Amino acid sequence: MSSDALLRAEGLSASYDGRLVFRGASLSLGPGLYTLQGANGRGKSTFLRLLAGAQLPDSGEAWIAGMSLRDAPRAARRRLGYAPDESHIYPFMTGRDLFRFVANAKGVAPPADPDDFSADLGLGPFLAVRFDAMSLGTQKKVLLRAAFIGSPRVVLLDEPSNGIDAAARRALFEKLCDYAADATILCATHDATMIEETGATALAMSQICLGPSAR
Amino acid sequence: MGGKFAAYTATLPIQPLTRLAVDLTMLLVADIVPLLFFITAATFASAESRIWLAMLVAILLAAQLWVLCHLRASPISRWPSADRVRSALPPWLSVQLQALSERRGVSLLRVGIAFAIGVAADRLIVAFAFDARSVPTSIIAADLICLVLSGFYRGLLDAHRGAGRFLAALPLPPNYWTVRDVAFVATSAAPPLAIGWFRLSSLGLLSPQMLLLLVLACAGLIALLRMPLTRGGRLGSLAAAVIAALWAGAAIAAASR
Question: Which of A154, A181, B111, B239 is deepest in the core (most CB within 10 A)?
Answer without folding.
Answer: A154
